[in-house]
Design brief:
Oligomer: single chain
Distance between the termini: 38 Å
Radius of gyration: 30 Å
Largest sheet: 7 strands, mixed
CATH topology of the largest domain: FAD/NAD(P)-binding domain
Structural class: alpha/beta
Strand content: 15-25%
Shape: globular
Number of domains: 4
Number of helices: 17
CATH class of the largest domain: Alpha Beta
Mean pLDDT: 90
């Protein structure tokens, strides 16, 4: 674990030059890297006392290393070994003498060790791969999303013969898209672009008057209205059809670039639907129904997931996030069903465009995220114009003569909407892959593939991304897992994907980013009495002139354990540009961040990120979390 040093023991006598030299090098490393190395010397006054300790006491200390012939043959100083405690007992491993110790020090200081300390090593099953396997391909990747393409290209760069299959099955509403997977086509990219547009629209309406900006006025025109609270030309609006077309054109450009990049890396691309017939063979079916067989030594499943439908009567009248970004007509009055980040993000940018939006919430917002931060998002969204129907689910959807959808809710109320968007979860898109025929197990709750180190129970079949059970459903996670897996399979690496302390951001009208544990998870893991929470509310400088923002505040919290090191367990930030703010803190968390390191960091002034490194108010103190000025 990061922050837990190796304990290295070295024994010798004061007049031995080899012992003195080795001890000096080790102490220098321990001084430079105190979280990674601790050195415990066992020093004797002369050679005779050292040899007595080593050899003469009932067979000698060295004979505790019964499995290491080198240890039992070592008779000179220094004698160096690893043990978990300062007394040197419970020996873990024998390192050697002077030369072996200096060689270990050189390896310890190598650039690779510095860049990636304490990363997990993948202990994988032998999948039977040989270079003369006789199959069509070394690797076939099923799924052309971000993770699948990353793995395919990296494997090809490493010399593998690779094919990638991608086939988009139309959504129930008939929406389809091109190469690139969910993120590019119906996820992160269009969502963020709509989100940016809605923030710009909101800023024009709320903030520009306070900065003296008058849209539509000739340059130099006098403004007779008050600066505070003025709304520019009320005709200022986002045109759905225009922004939708611009975003779709951008995405089509990405689709083309992905095809080109696969070709550049000499990855064979098939626009075909795959199904396993045995562990080395898939049946590939194109859009005209023509089938062929493709064989490979190894397969990688990276098909991602698809939205779960509503379970009520008339569910077919709802659309999903697979459909909303491609709608040719403005969604109009919209009901978003669910309190997931997808539902809240869609509700947020639709409301930011000036639409009438309601969110139907069965229980809580953003399950799995920090509760306090999730509630602050809900409060902000209400102020943003989003309405919430709490403790309800749709019990029936009915299409009416106007083309709208009438929704009957579980509390007996009903309302008519132009669009109903279902965002109640996602399921892995694995049900038609034939995985059961090759012994690949899936979680019955979400159809996600069960595996370890991205390897399934069928050793030559692997899985990454949203399709792999108990891993974060995030595009960068899929990409990195794909790269690491390709390097292990074809590059000789052993490094495993580290799924801990991964940053994520929710692009709601007020953004929320976090890394590490939520406060609830920290309490559950360490106990309420063993953690402390530092927190602060503040008004971001960019909001400070706007009267319409005067009652809004950003918020940050840092959760630490009460050990002497005060290790940081989680960082949370609710406010503008949350993803940009959090990324650097994610790097620090990977290195074993402590509260002292965090608060010793000089902030960039005046920024919102600065608030995180200047935290001083604890929840246990009961002090007001609202911050003062500079």
């Amino acid at each position: 674990m990061a922050g837990v040093p190796k304990v290295l023991h070295i024994s010798g006598y004061q007049s031995c030059g080899f012992y003195v030299r080795a001890l000096g090098v080790l102490r220098s490393l321990a001084l430079l890297f105190p979280t990674r190395l601790k050195v415990v010397p066992h020093e004797f006054s002369d050679r005779a006392s050292f040899r007595s300790w080593l050899l003469d006491d009932d067979g000698g200390f060295r004979n505790t290393f019964t499995r290491d012939i080198r240890a039992r043959e070592q008779v000179t100083a220094p004698f160096v070994w690893f043990a978990p405690s300062d007394d040197g007992h419970d020996v873990e491993d024998f390192l050697g003498g002077h030369d072996d110790t200096l060689a270990w020090c050189r390896e310890f200081m190598s650039p690779r060790d510095e860049i990636k300390p304490n990363y997990p090593v993948a202990d994988m099953m032998d999948d039977g791969y040989t270079k003369d396997h006789g199959y069509d391909y070394d690797l076939v990747v099923i799924g052309g999303g971000s993770g699948g393409m990353a793995a395919a290209k990296e494997a090809a760069v490493l010399g593998a013969k690779v094919a990638c299959l991608d086939f988009v099955k139309p959504s129930p509403a008939g929406t389809t898209w091109g190469l690139g997977g969910t993120c590019v086509n119906v996820g992160c990219i269009p969502k963020k672009l709509f989100h940016i547009g809605s923030l710009l629209h909101e800023s024009v309406r709320k903030d520009t008057p306070s900065f003296g900006i008058r849209l539509g006025e000739p340059n130099g025109a006098s403004a007779t209205d008050e600066l505070s609270g003025i709304v520019p030309d009320p005709s200022t609006q986002m045109r759905w059809e225009l922004v939708r077309e611009n975003i779709q054109n951008y995405i089509r450009g990405l689709n083309f670039k992905y095809r080109v990049r696969l070709r550049e890396k000499e990855v064979t691309y098939f626009n075909k639907l795959a199904k396993f017939t045995d562990k080395h063979t898939i049946e590939a079916v194109d859009k005209k129904g023509r089938s062929s067989l493709i064989t490979a030594a190894r397969f990688l499943v990276a098909v991602g997931g698809r939205p779960s439908p509503l379970s009520c009567e008339g569910a077919e009248h709802a659309i999903s996030s697979d459909d909303v970004f491609a709608m040719e007509k403005c969604p109009g009055k919209t009901l978003c069903v669910g309190a997931s980040y997808i539902s809240l993000e869609c509700a947020g940018f639709l409301a930011g465009m000036g639409l009438d939006v309601t969110v139907a919430v069965r229980s809580i917002l953003l399950r799995g995220f920090d509760r306090e931060c999730a509630d602050k998002i809900g409060d902000y969204m209400v102020d943003h114009g989003v309405r919430f129907k709490r403790d309800v689910i749709p019990s029936k959807l009915e299409k009416i003569e106007t083309g709208q959808t009438k929704v009957l809710f579980s509390d007996g109320t009903e309302e008519v909407y132009d669009t109903v968007l279902a965002a109640v979860g996602r399921m892995a898109d694995t049900d038609k892959l034939g995985l059961e025929s090759v012994g690949v197990e899936t979680n019955p709750k979400n159809r996600r593939i069960i595996g370890k180190f991205e390897q399934t129970h069928c050793p030559n079949i692997y899985a990454i991304g949203d399709v792999l059970d108990k891993t974060p459903e995030l595009t960068p996670v899929a990409i990195q897992a794909g790269l690491y897996l390709a390097r292990r399979l074809f590059g000789g690496d052993k490094e495993a994907m580290d799924y801990q302390n991964v940053c994520t951001t929710v692009f709601t009208p007020i953004e929320y980013a976090c890394v590490g544990l939520s406060e609830e998870d920290a309490v559950a893991k360490y106990g309420q009495n063993n953690i402390e929470v530092y927190h602060r509310e503040f008004v971001p400088l960019e909001w400070s002139l706007s009267m319409s923002r005067s009652h809004n505040a950003a918020y940050t919290k840092v959760i630490v354990d009460k050990s002497p090191q005060e290790n940081v367990l989680g960082i949370h930030y609710v406010g503008p540009n949350a993803g940009e703010v959090m990324q650097g803190y994610g790097t620090s968390m990977k290195q074993g961040l402590t509260l002292k390191t965090l608060t010793d960091t000089v902030g960039i002034h005046p920024t919102s990120s600065e608030e995180i490194v200047t935290l001083s108010i604890t929840k246990s103190s009961g002090e007001d979390a609202a911050a003062g000025g500079c």
